[in-house]
Amino acid sequence: MLGAGPSSLAAGPAAVRNGYMTTGTPAVTRLDEIGLRPAVVIAPDTPLDQAARVMRAHGVSALVVGDPGETVSILTERDVTQAVADGRPSTDQVAAIASAAPLTLRADATVMDAATLMLREGLRHLIVTRDNRVAGIVSIRDALAALVTTVTPDTVFVRLQRITLEPPELWLG
Fold it and tell me: Whole-model pTM above 0.85?
């Protein structure tokens, strides 16, 4: 599913992008314009405890799991917490608990698209792709920070009116 996601139209001062009229407003800031965090990648056979140490060492809350040229998955703090709560041995391989076929967005998708998708799906992280390759990871915190510094309240209100959230069971939001 790499690279699957909304496309952006290059245009002049005004364009229709993802069904919304844009006039160069911050609401159309693209993911590749906000300084994506590089993805930290681990092998599928990495033990769970080592993956947790990699997260801590890099100060990240999500890791891309995969080998070059292979389909990737994503391992998040939520996955690690669930594995520990389920009593999984720390020596279990991350491939057994990582989320396979994660949702992705292209680097030219907007920050608003990323935030909307994460809210709608109850996710905290998305893999961002460029040319069907991992370009980085965006978190809901990254998206919120970009929106807070660039979007007007009117823009957010208009967009939020169009979002319908169906929280998954036990969603902590």
Answer: no
